[in-house]
């Protein structure tokens, strides 16, 4: 027994290691054939690897917390088209390289929806990355100093779905706008991006100081885009009012 477990560990068959003794007892009790026993332990290995793969993908995605579509209160945001959101939750927009822009004031559920859509994407096997816009910009600016700019650009352009949270809370200077444009242009018509913002498109010229790049960014984002403007009240304000 010890030799077999040792071999399994050497071959990195961790899923089989976990269940080997249990499956041996089961095989004896049910009088399973060698073929049936082999199929069972191989399925254990496959399931274990799939579980580990999902854990790695979730870790790489860097979600700040877990928010699910089932927990979103659409009744509190009556103008939001529930059917359209649920259709996007199927992940159908990702193979098409389509984008999603969620616009609304703080507390209206933009980040919740973006994370929920990202978690759905992960469940379908797509790669995903969540970041605030400013964290991405800061990382790219820093990478210029340590000569890792190209590597960092690839980091943000590679995922099937990139979620950029909190666009509009700070304005961008010339080089930061160029960095943002670089990511958007490389992903254009190839990969999907979700952006949450507290400003409608007409106010984006106050975010991106360079008007030419503003037009180029907006043009690429909305070419294949699902836009949702959430005009409801803040969930946080609602909950605070209840507590009071």
Write the layout of secondary structure elements.
Elements: H1 2-10, H2 14-30, H3 34-61, H4 82-88, E1 99-104, H5 110-123, E2 128-132, H6 133-145, H7 149-157, E3 161-167, H8 174-187, E4 192-197, H9 211-222, E5 225-230, H10 235-243
Parallel strand pairs: 1-4, 1-5, 2-3, 3-4
Helix pairs in contact: 2-3, 6-7, 6-8, 8-9
Whole-number average pLDDT?
92
Give the beta-strand count: 5
| Oligomeric state, counting identical vs distinct chains | single chain
Strand order, sheet with most strands: 2-3-4-1-5
Q: What is the count of distinct domains? A: 2
Instruction: Profile the largest sheet.
Output: 5 strands, parallel
CATH architecture field of the largest domain: 3-Layer(aba) Sandwich
What would you note in describing this structure?
The structure is a single chain. The chain is an alpha/beta fold and 244 residues long. It has two domains: 2-58, no CATH class; 69-243, P-loop containing nucleotide triphosphate hydrolases (Rossmann fold), CATH 3.40.50.300. Helices cover 54% and strands 12% of the residues. It has helices at residues 2-10, 14-30, 34-61, 82-88, 110-123, 133-145, 149-157, 174-187, 211-222, 235-243; strands at residues 99-104, 128-132, 161-167, 192-197, 225-230. Strands 2-3-4-1-5 form a five-stranded parallel sheet. The protein is elongated and about 75 Å long. The termini are far apart. The model is unreliable at 240-244 (pLDDT under 50).
């Amino acid at each position: 027994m010890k030799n077999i477990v040792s071999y399994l560990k050497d071959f990195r068959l961790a899923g089989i290691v976990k269940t080997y003794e249990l499956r041996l007892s089961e095989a004896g009790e049910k009088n399973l054939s060698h073929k049936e026993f082999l199929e069972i332990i191989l399925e254990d290995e496959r399931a274990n690897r799939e579980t580990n793969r999902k854990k790695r993908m979730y870790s790489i995605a860097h979600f700040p917390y877990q928010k699910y579509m089932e927990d979103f209160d659409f009744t509190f945001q009556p103008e939001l088209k529930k059917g359209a959101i649920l259709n996007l939750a199927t992940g159908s927009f990702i193979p098409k390289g389509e984008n999603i822009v969620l616009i609304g004031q703080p507390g209206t559920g933009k980040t919740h929806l973006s994370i929920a859509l990202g978690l759905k994407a992960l469940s379908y096997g797509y790669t995903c990355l969540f970041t605030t816009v400013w964290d991405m910009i800061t990382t790219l600016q820093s990478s210029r100093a340590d000569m890792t700019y190209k590597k960092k650009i690839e980091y943000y352009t590679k995922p099937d779905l990139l979620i950029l949270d909190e666009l509009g809370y700070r304005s961008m200077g010339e080089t930061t706008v160029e960095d943002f444009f670089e990511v958007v242009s490389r992903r254009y018509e190839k990969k999907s991006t979700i952006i949450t913002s507290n400003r409608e498109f007409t106010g984006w010229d106050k975010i991106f100081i360079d008007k030419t790049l503003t037009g180029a960014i907006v043009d690429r984002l909305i070419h294949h885009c699902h836009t949702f403007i959430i005009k409801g009240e803040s969930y946080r304000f609602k909950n605070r009012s209840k507590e009071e």
